[in-house]
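Ticket reopened. Same input as before:
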Amino acid sequence: MAAVSQSFKTELLGAIPSLRAFAVSLTQNADKADDLVQETLVKAWDKHESFQPGTNLKAWLFTILRNEFYSQMRKRGREVQDSDGIMTARLAVHPAQHGQLDLKDFRGALEQLPEDQREAIILIGASGFSYEEAAEICGCAVGTIKSRVSRARARLQDILKISGEDEYGPDAISAQVTGSNAA
Amino acid sequence: MKEMSKNSTTGAAGGRRNGSGNPLGPNSEIARKLKQYYDELVSDEVPDRFAQLLSQLEEAEPAEKKD
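Engineering reply: fixed in the latest deploy. New output:
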């Protein structure tokens, strides 16, 4: 068994901020997120030989982290997710005006998304992965990622009362945003 | 509505972008907030425990290589 190379270690260290951000996005809890990152690093270390140099280490690590998250969630019977109500209650939704959406409101809205939608929109819209990479990380089809992102976006718009479909310009996905105008 | 001259297509992440930039729409409020939310998390200071963990893992490794 080959030793872990110094460069692998350096890259692991470098990936930690991204891993933590993704972990918080998934768990919505800073402590659980750091535990998850720790597990991920240990796993990555143990199976470093299965990483193919030259491929995307960050994507590889995100895959490990995500798998770890879902397996923990299964073990705990899904209580990982926010004990519902608390976050939702804290979220005072008031109509957002363009450019004035509060980050706290946004965070609250993000918490209300199902995990699969939240992770999809984070991977695509924030972590900088391509649809193909995100699909690989989540072990699903590219089309599935696209539709999750689309639903996540529609849901966020709905929760945050953003009505500006026109903001998105001519892309196919935005056409799916149905005009919901809940009070 | 003119967006600020802030363009986030050059994200820190290594993923390759398709020509349209941010898939959520470069000018969208949600895309911007999502970036802001995430960037804040990424820039959070990393606790020492992680560097310590990697050092421990390194020390635990057998020094000599065999195959």
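Chain B has two helices and no strands. Helices of chain B lie at 29-42, 48-60. Please confirm and we'll close it.
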